[in-house]
Amino acid sequence: MENEKNKLNIELKPEVARGSYSNLAIISHSHSEFVIDFATSLPGYPKPEICSRILMAPEHAKRLLNALAENVSKYEANFGKIELGGPQPGATFNLADFNNPNGAKS
Prior knowledge:
Elements lengths: L1 H5 L7 H4 L6 E6 L4 E7 L8 E8 L1 H22 L13 E2 L12
Parallel strand pairs: 1-4
Antiparallel strand pairs: 1-2, 2-3
């Protein structure tokens, strides 16, 4: 009975189910929310195109961080370590790092 009470009943619409490809995430935040812009950067295109924007409360952002860490750990246990190999085109960065021309954090 308790397992049934803890189940989440969600709906996945077909247009959402196919998903969107992203190889770039631009993350910014204020005191009250995190904004994650998912984009696709492809060779031959002048600039990345944002395909989705997710806004969430800081508490949910931390839950997402923990869930991603747990799932990456499970993935690596099954398939081996994910190698990043240094800075990559399309790597995640913090938009706030680009607001200061010297790269210093404010």
